[in-house]
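fyi for ur records
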Amino acid sequence: MTATVLTARALLLDMDGTLVNSDAVVERIWRRWSERHGLDGDEVMKVVHGRQGHASMAVLLPDRPKKQNLADNARMLAEETADVEGVVEVPGAAAFLASLRGLPHALVTSADVALSTVRMAAAGLPMPAVRVTAESVGASKPDPEGFLKGAAELGVAPADCVVFEDSGAGIAAGRAAGMRVVGVGARAGVHGPDAVVRDLTQVRVETAADGSIRLTVSGG
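which gave:
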C-alpha cells in the first residue's frame, strides 16, 4: 500500500459518491428516466455521476430544448429528495468530517440545497458551514465554477485547495480549477486524480504548525 502526503489550506468536498453513498437512489431514478426515453440504462449511468441532472440530459438528449431539460430536472430533484432509501455514509466520512472541525472546508455539490440537506442528514453527516450547491453556480461540473466559488468563499487560492471527488466530471472540474484532486472509490481511478482511495477510512488529516492541512492518503 502506497501513501501520498498532500498539504493544503482548504479542502473542497463533493457529496454523492464522496461523502454520501446515494448510488441506490441515483440508479433507481435514472434507470426509470432511461426507460421513459428509450435509452440504455447502463450507458446513461456512465454519464450522470457528478453532473447536475439537466446537464446530463443535455449530453444524453442533445436535441432537446434546455427549458424541457430544466423542467424534467426539477421533477427528478423532487423524486430524489423524497427517496432516501439506501442512502448511507461512504465508509469513514463521519470521522473524516469530524477531523476537519475548525479547518477550512466546503461542500461543493451538483445537488441543490434541499437534496444535499436531505442526503447528508440521511447519512448522519454534519453539513459543512460553507456549501456550494446547484443554485450557486451558472454551470455544472465539469465546469470549475463550483470549486472556484468554494475556494473564494473560504478565502483560499485554488492552488492551495485539495478536492475530494468520485466522478469523471468532478475530477475534471477540480483539475480545471487548478486544484489537486483525491479520487474516492472505484469510479475515480480511471480519471487521473493525484491520489486514489477506496473510501475515506484511507485518509488521515493533521494540522501542521503553520495551520495548513496535512493529508496522508493510503491508496490500495
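The first strand starts at residue 3 and ends at 8. thats all i got for now
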